[in-house]
Automatic annotation (TrEMBL):
Domain of life: Bacteria
Topological category with respect to the lipid bilayer: Single-pass type II membrane protein
InterPro entries in the cross-refs: Cell_div_FtsL, FtsL/DivIC
Any single biological process term in GO: cell division
Cell compartments where the protein resides: Cell membrane
Primary location group: membrane
Family, similarity comment: Belongs to the FtsL family.
Keywords: Cell cycle, Cell division, Cell membrane, Membrane, Transmembrane, Transmembrane helix
Protein name, as recorded: Cell division protein FtsL
Gene: ftsL
Function according to Swiss-Prot or TrEMBL: Essential cell division protein.
Organism listed in the record: Bacillus salipaludis
Length: 120
């Protein structure tokens, strides 16, 4: 019986060590809590940065569109100004002014011309 009791005791101890081993095994997580927090903060910063970048690009696009509209208005106004300048030069020609003066009854006196005096 000594052998049988010893085998029985050994079996009980083996079962206890197997139970202890199964209880001792802890499931390790892939990331520590600190790493998880850092990951969440990093992901939040990336999301915030991307939203901020897209918002800035949208604002830049709007400003560029406004600039192009103003430049178009400027070029149109420059064309109008150029046309008006041509009209001014045409209307201020000496012959035209002389014709208008004749129609209004003004006469040209050869003896009473305006003379330009230059300084030395």
């Amino acid at each position: 019986m000594g052998n049988l009791a010893r085998k029985y005791l050994e079996q009980q101890q083996a079962e206890q060590t197997v139970q202890n081993k199964s209880q001792v095994k802890l499931k390790k997580s892939w990331l520590t809590p600190g790493e998880k927090i850092i990951g969440v903060v990093f992901a939040g910063m990336v999301c915030f940065g991307s939203v901020h970048l897209i918002s800035n690009q949208s604002n830049i696009y709007e400003v560029n569109k406004d600039i192009q509209a103003v430049e178009e208005k400027i070029s149109e106004q420059q064309k109008v100004n150029g046309d008006l300048q041509v009209q001014v030069s045409e209307l201020s020609s000496y012959d035209r002014i002389f014709e208008k003066a004749k129609k209004m009854g003004l006469i040209r006196d050869e003896n009473n011309d305006v003379k330009v005096v230059q300084e030395r």
